Amino acid sequence: MATSIRATGDHGDLPELHRLIIDEGVDALSRWFVPSADLDIPTRFGRTPLMTAIAAKDLAKIEWLLRHGADPEKTDDYSGTALAFAVNHDFVPAIELLIRAGVDRGYTPKYPPKPLRSILPKQDLPMPEELRGAMSEEEWREMMRSGMEAIEKEELLIPVMPLIGDVQSLEALRLFLDAGDRLGDAPGDLKRQLLGIPEQDNFTATKEDFLRDWRPTFGETNPQRIESKFLRDMVLTGKSAYGARAFFTGDKTDDALSPVWCNARFGASLTELPDGRYVQIGGEHEDHYDPDFRIYNDVIVFDGRGGFEIYGYPKADFPPTDFHTATLVGDQIYVIGSLGYPDSRKPGMTPVFRFDTVTWRVTRVATSGAMPGWIYKHLAVYDAVSNAIRVWGGKVQEPTDRHETNRSSFLFDFKTFVWRSG
């Protein structure tokens, strides 16, 4: 049994190890430790000792815990990991240490996600003040009751998302990028900082500019350089399609002016070039039920100093794409996979396109071999050992239209255009 060392703080019913981490030094942990000690003993809300050390921003204790066998993949009651804790506290040294240790970054958790019901309140929540007058107390209680029943019936789990989406600093962001995460999944404000996009709150384009260029279009040549004051303002301001339409017309819901071209997107890729430029490809705005929903096939090349160029492409040469990967090999960017519009999906096939970073011409790549299938939200990285692009994770749409988790790894040989298991 571990030697008892009294912690000086008043921390209620925290387990002794947690109290030692908060109040004592590493030497006290070493005196407390015996081989049978539980280094993952949780608090009432499932917080592990590693999480407590991260909250204290004590790297020496984090290293001690890992060195003595603490499990960095353990989750709290909210399915959060030690890395998630480090990201939320923006403790960069811990983020670096955990990523170097190879922990999951929000893609393939070691432990199954906790059921959503486990974090639901055990008693009725009061009705928000802003809903009073819109519904009665009885209606509110019935809505809450039916919602709880639905969660119980469906056995919903707490969603696990890529942790790069929660990073709070450029330093932390670069650690995830170096590990192979998608820059397109990073928070918008950090992406703007990284791309060097200057702050611009208001439009400089005129209403005439808007009425001429609001509609998303495909390029007529491969590529076609697009010059538009309105499109430039949409990139610089980060405005939504809804916001642009309201600003220029005063009508927020005019379906005749939908969808409006917009650069506030999900599922776009961002690839860094050796000269400091960044290449954004495709992405989508809003969800399928929204009048401004659109999946794009354009390319925006940022120079990293506030300047950028927009290129369009014929749909036949490069269809709308989202949730793909874009991997730089030499002076070529290989775009692999996509979710895309439902009628464009070909289960069993994996779309591959290649961009020339000198001319910006795109070429469809015909491939063969053991390809992943219609894959999206995956990861890809150049593998120097095999001189190929490694693809793993994400989802695959099956011929039955079911969307399954991809649990395999694949290698794409960009010289022979042949896929193989990896």
Structure notes:
The chain is an alpha+beta fold and 422 residues long. It has three domains: 1-114 and 157-179, Ankyrin repeat-containing domain (Serine Threonine Protein Phosphatase 5, Tetratricopeptide repeat); 116-154; 180-421, 6 Propeller (Neuraminidase). Helices cover 25% and strands 18% of the residues. It has a five-stranded antiparallel beta sheet with strand order 1-5-4-3-2, with no helix packed on it. A five-stranded mixed beta sheet has the order 10-17-16-13-12, with no helix packed on it. It has a four-stranded antiparallel beta sheet with strand order 6-7-8-9, with no helix packed on it. A hairpin with a 5-residue loop joins strand 4 (294-302) and strand 5 (308-312). The chain is globular. The two termini are 46 Å apart.
Strand count, sense and closure of the main sheet? 5 strands, antiparallel
Tell me what portion of residues adopts beta-strand conformation.
15-25%
Listing every helix as H and every strand as E from the N terminus to the C terminus, the arrangement reads HHHHHHHHHHEHHEEEEEEEEEEEEEEEE
Largest sheet strand order: 1-5-4-3-2
Percentage of residues assigned to helices: 25-40%
N- to C-terminal distance: 46 Å
Summed up, the domain count is: 3
Please state the oligomeric state of the protein chains shown.
Answer: single chain
What is the CATH architecture term of the largest domain? 6 Propeller
CATH class of the largest domain: Mainly Beta
Give the mean pLDDT. Answer: 90
CATH topology of the largest domain: Neuraminidase
Number of strands: 17
How does the overall form come out from the CA principal axes? globular
Rg over alpha carbons: 25 Å
Give me the number of helical elements.
12
Q: Uncertain segments of ≥5 residues (pLDDT<50)?
A: 1-10
Coarse structural class: alpha+beta
